[in-house]
Amino acid sequence: MTKIQLVQPHPALLLQQNSDRGLVVCDLHLGWERLLTKKGVHVPSQTPKIKNALLKLIKQTKPTHMIILGDIKDAITNVSMQEWKEIPEFFEEINKQVPNTEAILGNHDGNLESLLPKTVKIVPPTGAIFGDVGLFHGHAWPAPKLLGCKSLVTGHVHPTVAIHDPMGLRITKQVFVKAPCNGEILAKAILSRLGTKTEADTSRAFKSNVSQLFIMPSFNQFLGGRAINERKRGRKKPDTYIGPILRSGCTNIDDAEVYLLDGTFLGTVDQLKALS
Question: Considering its fold, how many domains does the chain have in total?
Answer without folding.
Answer: 1
